[in-house]
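Continuing the series of single-chain predictions for the mutant panel. This is the parent chain; the variants come on the following pages.
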Amino acid sequence: MKQVYKVVGIGELLWDVLPEGKKLGGAPANFAYITRLLGDAGAVASRVGSDTLGEEALAQLAAVGVETKHVQQDATHSTGVVKVEFAGGQPHYEICEGVAWDFLEWTPQWHELAQTVDAVCFGSLAQRSPSARDTVRKFVQATREESVRIFDVNLRQKFFSAQILAESIRLADVVKLNHEELPQIVALLGLPMGSEAENAQRLRRAMELKLVCVTRGNAGSLIVSEDEVSAHPGLCVTVADTIGAGDAFTAGLVHQYLRGASLAQMNETANRTGSWVASRAGAMPKPEPGEIEAIKAAKA
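Parent structure:
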């Protein structure tokens, strides 16, 4: 077993413009950052504009140890921006279109990267444009047979379709989605509707997945495999905001999956990682001494 795994988040890299100012984000970047904190080699495959915001994004990621050499720079399209407002503690997003990450380009360098990764995580938002969708899929398909492919659904606004979801799920080994997304996807795919556990298992069987993971906000999560089910009740924390908490959950899940952990241990680490991010402002908080070590040491 390796000590350090190479893990890539591919897709959007952007700035969340919050009432108090801007914070770097995008699910792949959030995922790669937490992956790095947990001790693996986290990298981002994305695209920013050749502008001030792009330069700031690259500098900030590099400063926290996330590999950025696979972030493309676009002289024509600007760096992505999302306006974030809160209602009842939940973020609502206005995602600008036609930005740099809508034009992800398949290159020999990305092909080489794809063949070296131990895991790749991708979502639905980065596939909203045909060119980016084609690139994301080529990257995932170019990974080695033993690499783990994670589809972290992250439905946003109108930027998905039944076809995009079905094709993405078929590319994946692991699908992670939340309790609101699960019935939507079951309906879009034309599967029989049942309980949450039944829906997760039907999705797993229909799409020949190794795992389906359903997050339940502050009520924990459910993970199902072919022969096992693990339910976690969640952890009680004071929530600062929920931006990036789902991405952190995914990073914790993947960290343990790569190490052959039990479903219960995956659930424990994922919930602790997600809860830690939810307890702090922004998607990429700086840990206090010992916080990450405590997350990794917690046993199911």
